[in-house]
Amino acid sequence: MNAFLSPGHSPNRPVLCTVVPPHLLRKAAQSPDPARADAALRTLEHDGALRVRRQVSALRGIVPDLADAPAEGPARTVYDAQHRTRLPGKKVRGEGSEPVGDATVNRAYAGLGATYELFLKAFGRHSIDDSGLPLDATVHYGEDYNNAFWDGRQMVFGDGDGDLFLDFTVSVDVIGHELAHGVTQYTANLDYHGQSGALNESMSDVFGSLIKQYSLGQTADQADWLIGAGLLGPNVTGAALRSMKAPGTAYDDDELGKDPQPATMDDYVDTTRDNGGVHINSGIPNHAFYIAATELGGKAWERAGQIWYDTLTGGQLGERADFTDFARLSVAAAVARYGEGGAEHRALQKAWSAVGLG
């Protein structure tokens, strides 16, 4: 089978999935500070070129060659791009080797492991493709590169410019977010546009948050429910890139503007930018997950996360599914696993009703 085929779905169309949305970088590119504007503009231009390259490769049917994967355990390799943009770069740490002197390399290695462990221990999934796919990451990508991305095969981390953004390995949920795009790629393969694209982004935020909570041993009420906490630079007024607890409140900065994410369908944003607002409207299903998880309490990956995983991997979620489709299928998944009328069923109904999808 082609490495990018998933059962019951058409061939995968891996896209460039960046953690910092284009609308935020566009705001930064308008800064009166030339250095700040320059770094944001270079990142935007580079991301644009990478997206075109991914689209052309998909149209031509080009997919990466993947090495034979081990059956058990993670197979991590971290590379150093040495501030260039050629992938993967120089190998600096492999599976089972000792920590190196570069904290960025060690954080990437640990984040890959944390992601592998959450999916294995919580859901019985062996790596991104459920067949032990090696986990590769490249750090120190580009000069002052203000993003991190999954390119259909591996993780890539910029160092940030030290002003707007810090090193993109500092937040384990960002690492988990990007790797979760790979899980979506190998399962429901959600089309990266409109509501299906917003679901794609939301799946990554959900599992990224669960990976952080799992790593920290947090219950739902102890978690901060922030995506990218600690990532914003010292000159930015904000706490994170996104908030699942309170979408629209993650940042409010003079130059970056205010977090535009809606929490409910009443404030759904119709836009042609960012593939139809995939990073904006993802706030709605994100908030539904937060409500379901906190309503159930305890460890969010054990019940709410299991329901989301069942929905993503159950084979019924179409590539162009919208929010209503996901809400319906997640309620059905809750009933299938936990029974009708129970706490899980009620939590799902409450969550989707609260965001306007009851």
How would you characterize the overall build of this protein?
The chain has a six-stranded mixed β-sheet, covered by helices on one side. Strands 7-8 form a two-stranded antiparallel ribbon. The protein has helices spanning 22-29, 34-59, 103-123, 172-186, 194-216, 274-277, 283-296, 304-313, 323-338, 343-354; strands at 17-18, 76-80, 90-94, 135-139, 148-150, 155-157, 226-227, 242-243, 252-253, 257-258. Residues 1-12 and 56-67 have low confidence and may be disordered. Helix 3 (103-123) crosses helix 4 and helix 5 (194-216) runs parallel beside helix 7 (283-296). With 358 residues, the chain is an alpha+beta fold.
What is shown here, in short?
The chain contains 10 helices and 10 strands. The chain has helices spanning 22-29, 34-59, 103-123, 172-186, 194-216, 274-277, 283-296, 304-313, 323-338, 343-354; strands at 17-18, 76-80, 90-94, 135-139, 148-150, 155-157, 226-227, 242-243, 252-253, 257-258.
General shape: globular
> Strands of the biggest beta sheet: in what spatial order?
1-5-6-4-2-3
Major sheet: 6 strands, mixed
What is the strand content? 5-15%
Distance between the termini: 39 Å
Low-confidence stretches: 1-12, 56-67
Number of helices: 10
- The whole-number mean of residue pLDDT values reads 91
Class of secondary structure makeup: alpha+beta
Rg (C-alpha, Å)? 19 Å
Instruction: Report the helical percentage.
Output: 40-55%
Order of helix and strand elements from N to C terminus: EHHEEHEEEHHEEEEHHHHH
- Number of DSSP E strands: 10
